[in-house]
Structure of Coenzyme A biosynthesis bifunctional protein CoaBC:
Amino acid sequence: SRGLPLSGKRVLITAGPTHEAIDPVRFLGNRSSGTMGFELAKRAANLGADVVLVSGPTNLNIDHGEINLIKVTTAQEMYDACHQHYNKTDVAICAAAVADYRPKHVAKEKMKKKEGDLQIELERNPDILLSLGEKKTNQFLVGFALETENELENAKGKLQRKNLDAIVLNSLKDDGAGFGGNTNKITFIDKNLDIKTFDLKTKSDVASDIWEEITSRIHA
Ligand code: C5P
């Protein structure tokens, strides 16, 4: 893989949802399919990188010699796996839809239904991307933002607050963008607030575009 744009580079990617246990049979989760993160990992490997892909529960699998797929369940496990590899990482992309909250107490036995309503107390999960931004030395760090209002302003705010080198904005206002589907429509924003908007494309083609933006910046 010598001579490829990412030869010798180590890439860390998060993908998919996280599942936060309520009891042995129930969890809090979301509808992230993991597709965008897996496509980013495949593209990075094809560009010559050594890839660590940390994924929450998905239906996806990957069989590629250059991709180390680490399967996790919870945000805390994803956090731990990321921090284990981060020191040796050149480019990190957080594409996972991490649960912001987890149940404060996990019942040891399956919870029985009772009369009346139920309240489950939630506590905050760590923000993995924020923590990587705080620890950043030479890594090129990229986040995602899925916004429904004031998209550009919110994405720029996130970029600065989380100490990122770039952020990928996908708007729910665009048909075909975001969760579940196989297409996405993105805007790439770097830390100098250079902004580039792309057409609706397959997530595989979106992954190529994102890597083109990143490689042009890490080699510049
Ligand atoms: O702040 P917000 O959740 O909108 O930021 C989204 C970005 O932060 C995504 O890149 C997502 O992967 C990352 N994130 C994270 N850990 C969390 C929450 C979000 O890594 N607990």
The domain at 10-110+117-218 is CATH 3.40.50.10300 (Rossmann fold). Residues 14, 75, 94-96, 98, 100, 125, 127-129, 143-145, 158 surround cytidine-5'-monophosphate (CB under 6 Å). The chain has a mean pLDDT of 95.
